[in-house]
Request: fold
Amino acid sequence: NWLAQTNCTTRWMRYWLLPNTCWHNRINQPALSICRFLNFYERLLRLTDFQVEHAQQKLAETSEFIGKLSGVDGAIIFRTDFILEGFGTEILMDKIKPSKVYKVLDPIKKHKEELDSEQFGMRHRSAMRLVSAVPDIAIFVVSQDGGISLIWNENGEVCFKTGVKTTNVNMVSP
Reply:
């Protein structure tokens, strides 16, 4: 059962580690890496039909696995090299003062309006707390309804942009 996990608590967050069967024994890092699929389409040009089909199947399996992890409330944590670190993450920031959160309406004109962060679920609130405490990061939040938001710190203010598009309009056929 892939949900046979270990609870891990650090200074900043509490999350579920993947089971030992998903970890490399010698280097103690998750075996599942998304980075091998980041240049997927570039490598398609050099692959045979069988290899393309196999690679597409592996990408679909990885996407499905990550999707199942997102069914657990909380964040999915990736390292900067896109190695999966944990899931079901709750950002623990009890001792920081609450920051104001602003919804960005027009990023070019810097038009924004203040929001009540309590109107959002745990994923969004956790991301807002973390961005408030660690200003040099940006967090993409995928809602259970499928919408994507971007949360970042701009000059000490937590900024929130909804409706982030993940499709390159140049690649979509009419």
Observations:
- Helices lie at 35-38, 40-44, 49-69, 122-133.
- The first strand starts at residue 6 and ends at 9.
- Confidence is low (pLDDT under 50) at residues 1-13, 15-41.
